[in-house]
Design a protein that fits this description.
The structure holds 2 protein chains of 2 kinds.
Chain A (H helix, E strand, L loop, with lengths): L1 E9 L1 E2 L1 E2 L4 E6 L3 E5 L6 H8 L7 E5 L8 E4 L13 H7 L2 H4 L7 H13 L15 H14 L4 E5 L7 H17 L3 E5 L3 H7 L2 E6 L4 E6 H4 L2 H8 L3 E6 L2 E6 L6
Parallel strand pairs in A: 5-9, 5-10, 7-8, 8-9
Antiparallel strand pairs in A: 1-4, 1-6, 2-3, 10-11, 12-13
Chain B lengths: L1 H5 L4 H31 L3 H24 L14 H16 L10 H20 L8 H9 L7 H30 L1 H6 L4 H23 L1 H18 L3 H26 L3 H10 L1 H17 L1
Helix pairs in contact in B: 2-7, 2-9, 2-10, 2-11, 3-4, 3-5, 3-6, 3-9, 3-10, 4-9, 7-9, 9-10, 10-11, 10-12, 10-13, 11-12
The chains are: A alpha/beta, B mainly alpha.
Chain lengths: 253, 296
């Protein structure tokens, strides 16, 4: 089921970053958005979920209604002034489902605790959110995004604060979620290997060169396209069923 | 006569003499103590001070326009000449506009708040110098600096009604208002009506400041808004705890301030503020003690 479609969309803040683009995201798809720093990846995500109005074109919902969105933004820093527990923060993810003016119920708390369990943080549910490490906060924010039982999960560089093991575990958990349900995931990453391992579709973009391509992973995740995207020679190799990525540094012997 | 003055005043006498003023101080304390949670968390403490001055400006303008129109301000007046209506309209509009101050990127937000505060204060002083409202000058002075010993019944009624409406509506919308304050972008992604909720929150603060200022004065209103909630955030570890501390702290400050001003003949509004400020060193000591206990 197609959840959200951008048609001839102009994205940006006042000035379009790219030529009009088309993008369709459907249930069960797992999208990776790749591009260099400052290429417009976060703007694409924010436009997709309606946080940034389009400068042109249309954002439509072919299934009828706007999908429930779970969203984790890049480099979010919680305001330490707020005396919120980790559970309080994760519960916020359900407020869209609960509705304005309606009370949080026991069942909502149970769902929030389940999501904390999923990201391995149930034991810190009662701790103040701002006392958690950066990586723990990031996982809790993923739990918050999942707590609303989203149809579209949008993750903007959620693994940037995590150590490699925690990042791999989190992405694997998200992949399990996609496999077990019809949720669509769109995630921004700088790790081409993560895109190769987890995504079914990729979007490559760079506002500086005007490049935007979106489609199935195997068709787009090629050395030529990545070389053009990052401006450096990129090599892909298959080892034991996994894709290994080499980027030439341009220095050395 | 001397014998009469020397006799101790009973609680009944105190309540008879100052009942409306005591009730107004407690209503303002409960309302502002609660709203202080949002004022301090949203880092708009001085916005509330500016709103108090705007409220004073509204009242002064109301008196001036009424005087120009030949209306006695102490007799029933048409609604459009009522100083409280002027204060409500000006404060509500300013609250709605100042809500966008934290979003300013090119201008330091505190500069805009300072501009509003200074402009409103200067305008009040200029209006008070007008000979047409010379009789109201003392009343407006009380309004700005706080003189809770003389509260009119209609101002008390307005305050109680606004407090009841604001507190009940916040009881219903609390979780949504807190999320919008904490993470507006997440709230928007979840489909919550962020703009409407923010407008409601700011208007409820603006209207509350206007009616509370009219009843007990700008200085105690500013004190009730920022001091107990600030101390509560230093001391308490949960939102419910902060809310309870802020409301109870403001009520205690109102009661203690009123009592001390009565027995020592000190000015009422400033005494309430001093009592509210006393929570800060206590909160700091609690914080230090807790830190030491945890480090053991």
């Amino acid at each position: 089921m197609e959840l959200v479609r951008l048609e001839q969309a102009l994205i940006g803040y006042g000035t379009p970053l790219l030529a009009p683009l088309d993008l369709q995201v459907s249930s069960g798809e797992h999208w990776a958005v790749l591009g260099p720093n400052g290429s417009g990846k976060s703007t694409l995500l924010r436009s997709l979920v309606g946080l940034v109005p389009l400068l042109g074109g249309r954002r439509t919902f072919p299934a009828g209604a706007e999908p429930r969105v779970g969203y984790v933004r890049q480099s979010y820093r919680s305001d330490p002034l707020y005396p919120l527990s980790t559970l309080d923060v994760v519960l916020q993810g359900r407020f869209g489902r609960i509705g304005v003016g309606r009370r949080v119920k026991r069942a909502d708390r149970e769902v929030a605790l389940q999501q904390l369990e999923r990201v391995g943080l149930r034991q810190v549910a009662r701790q103040r959110f701002d006392s958690l490490s950066g990586g723990q906060q990031q996982r809790a924010l993923v739990a918050r995004a999942l707590a609303g039982e989203p149809e579209l999960l949008v993750l903007d560089e959620v693994t940037s604060d995590l150590d490699p093991a925690a990042a791999a575990a989190l992405l694997a958990e998200v992949s399990r979620l996609v496999a077990a349900s019809s949720v669509a995931v769109v995630f921004v990453t700088h790790e081409v290997a993560d895109a190769a391992a987890h995504a079914s579709h990729v979007a490559l973009l760079d506002m500086r060169t005007g490049q935007f391509e979106a489609g199935p992973r195997d068709a787009l995740l090629t050395a030529d396209r990545l070389t053009r995207l990052y401006g450096r020679p990129v090599h892909l190799e298959k080892r034991d069923g996994r894709t290994v990525v080499f980027v030439e540094s341009g220095v050395g012997p | 006569m001397t014998d009469l003055l020397d006799q101790p005043v009973s609680l009944a006498d105190l309540l008879t003499l100052f009942g409306p003023a005591i009730a107004a101080a407690f209503a303002a304390a409960a309302l502002c103590g609660y709203l202080g949670l949002f004022v301090v968390l949203r880092r708009v403490s001085f916005v509330s001070a500016a709103l108090g001055q705007i409220s004073g400006l509204g009242v002064a303008l109301g008196f001036l326009v009424g005087a120009v129109a030949g209306v006695d301000p102490h007799q029933p007046t048409p609604l459009y000449l009522d100083p409280v209506v002027w204060a409500l309209v000006l404060t509500g509009a300013a609250a709605a506009l100042l809500a966008y101050v934290p979003r300013l990127r090119q201008i330091a937000p505190e500069s805009v708040v300072a501009l509003v505060y200074l402009a409103a204060t200067a305008l009040v002083l200029i209006i008070l110098a007008n000979p047409l409202i010379v009789q109201e000058t003392h009343e407006i002075g009380d309004l700005l600096f706080g003189n809770a010993v003389a509260v009119r019944k209609e101002h008390l009624v307005e305050l109680v009604v606004v407090a009841a409406v604001v507190l009940l509506s916040h009881l219903v919308l609390f979780k949504d208002l807190l999320l919008v304050s904490y993470d507006a972008e997440m709230a928007q992604a979840l489909g919550l009506p962020v703009g409407k909720l923010e407008l409601f929150l700011n208007l409820s603060i603006g209207v509350s400041v206007a009616v509370a200022t009219r009843a007990v004065g700008a200085l105690p209103v500013f004190g009730f808004l920022v001091l107990p909630a600030g101390a509560a955030l230093v001391t308490m570890e949960s939102v419910a705890g902060v809310m309870a501390f802020a409301m109870i702290g403001a009520l205690v400050a109102a009661g203690a301030g009123f009592y001390l001003s009565f027995v020592e003949s000190w000015p009422t509004g400033p005494m309430m503020v001093v009592c509210a400020a006393a929570f800060w060193p206590i909160a700091a000591l609690v914080r230090v003690a807790r830190g030491k206990r945890r480090s053991r």
